[in-house]
Amino acid sequence: MSEIVIEPMRPEFIESFREALDSVSRERRYLSLLEAPPLEATKDFVMGLLEKGNPQFVALVGDKVVGWCDIQRGTRETQSHRGTLGMGIVDGYREQGLGKRLITTTLDAARAMGLHRVDLDVHADNTRAARLYEKVGFQREGVARDAVLIDGHYIDLIKMAIIF
Questions:
Q1: pTM, whole model, 2 decimals?
Q2: Residues 123-142: what's their mean pLDDT?
């Protein structure tokens, strides 16, 4: 794990971030995306997070993104106290403690920016991720039944949140 560093997202990481997002998406197991958005849309997403001061961190091996975690703050005044977390780790880099490093770094940044609540959705069959979220303090709040459809199979989403 010593060769993997956690860094705040920077524009020069966008292309590699998109490749990592695409890789995890194409596994069709962990994310509610089947492929990454086009590069231009990915740039818009990342730059939007950066311009608004939202926490976004990447795990790097050299200049290659192998994981990410971000929190997008609510845009409405009534929801600006909360954010939604998204994360992923490229196959081959899981089960090494990287997820915990990424999420704790990102949650620390969310606390520092004054967020009160962070929520997320996790596929119900992704028990490894759900356990990680619980370890860092997230609690289950409910289930959205048949919320995702991938390859003809419905997947429930577990709704989780942490309150600081």
A1: 0.94
A2: 97
